[in-house]
């Protein structure tokens, strides 16, 4: 017997546009009946292209050169791609062998866009859990990151969404996510802190409460605990 949770991109679009709290987000993401037919906010590429052209013109960028004439259309398609998650189906299986050690996917590459400047941030995620009665297909740990990254984000929220959904879906003994990312809104502009990495973590269950399990998780992920900016775990 398998348990399934389907997350629908239309629902993400809905949630990305409705100013929801984290608690609401988690609830929506984890209620299959809410994750199906939401009032989808579709992508209007021609409107996005017109807006991109206006935006560039307002910044004094002239589009009458050959290399730039298609830029508004390319901009629209590029952002549409960044905000288009594939549907995600999280299927869990019984932990028949009683596996009780950490399962960690290390250095999962991700890219997303910061919701404050709409500039990219990218890095790696380490996602893992200590199994209870059920286990999850290994590739789903990476898919979970990809799914929540496909919308304007903050690193803190992305970290929490990945850990929370893993915890809710698989009901493990513990679960955690650590993200290391470089934000171009910090490295290319503003303070221009080139090479700086932001590290965030959310730890749940035994990974939060048991110091030994926690340090094992950090050690396998290759992250020193003292480097963590620390995101509120529950
Ligand atoms: Zn930013």
Keywords:
234 residues, alpha+beta, GTP Cyclohydrolase I, domain 2, 2 domains, five-stranded mixed sheet, three-stranded antiparallel sheet, 10 helices
The structural class is alpha+beta
CATH fold name of the largest domain, please?
Answer: GTP Cyclohydrolase I, domain 2
Anisotropy-based shape: elongated
Helicity level: 40-55%
Order of helices and strands: EHHHHHEEEEHEHEHEHH
What small ligands are held by the chains?
zinc ion
The CATH top-level class label of the largest domain: Alpha Beta
Assembly type? single chain
Q: What percentage of amino acids are in beta strands?
A: 15-25%
Low-confidence stretches: 10-40, 229-234
Radius of gyration: 19 Å
N- and C-termini, Cα separation: 30 Å
Report on the structure:
The protein is of the alpha+beta class and 234 residues long. It folds into two domains: 3-39 and 83-233, GTP Cyclohydrolase I, domain 2 (2-Layer Sandwich); 45-82, no CATH class. Helix content is 40%, strand content 25%. It contains ten helices and eight strands. A five-stranded mixed β-sheet has the order 6-3-4-7-8. It has a three-stranded antiparallel β-sheet with strand order 1-2-5. A hairpin with a 5-residue loop joins β3 and β4 (120-130). α6 (139-149) crosses α7 (155-170). The two termini are 30 Å apart. Mean pLDDT is 83; it is low at 10-40 and 229-234. The structure holds zinc ion.
């Amino acid at each position: 017997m398998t348990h399934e949770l389907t997350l629908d991109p239309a629902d993400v679009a809905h949630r990305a546009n409705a100013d929801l709290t984290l608690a609401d987000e988690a609830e929506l993401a984890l209620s299959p009946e809410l994750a199906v037919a939401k009032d989808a906010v579709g992508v209007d590429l021609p409107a996005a292209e017109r807006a991109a052209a206006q935006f560039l013109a307002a910044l004094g960028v002239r589009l009458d050169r050959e290399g730039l004439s298609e830029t508004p259309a390319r901009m629209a398609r590029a952002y549409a791609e960044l905000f288009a998650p594939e549907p995600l189906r999280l299927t869990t299986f019984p932990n028949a062998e009683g596996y009780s050690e950490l399962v960690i996917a290390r250095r999962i590459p991700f890219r997303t866009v910061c919701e404050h400047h709409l500039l990219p941030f990218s890095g790696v995620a380490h996602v893992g859990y200590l199994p209870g009665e059920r286990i999850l297909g290994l590739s789903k740990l990476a898919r979970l990151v990809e799914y929540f990254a496909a919308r304007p984000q903050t690193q803190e929220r992305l970290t929490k969404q990945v850990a929370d959904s893993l915890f809710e879906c698989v009901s493990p003994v513990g679960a955690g996510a650590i993200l290391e990312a470089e934000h171009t809104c910090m490295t290319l502009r503003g303070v221009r802190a080139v090479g700086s990495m932001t590290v965030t973590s959310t730890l749940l269950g035994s990974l939060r409460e048991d110091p030994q399990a926690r340090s094992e998780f950090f050690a396998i992920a290759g992250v020193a605990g003292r480097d963590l900016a620390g995101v509120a775990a529950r």
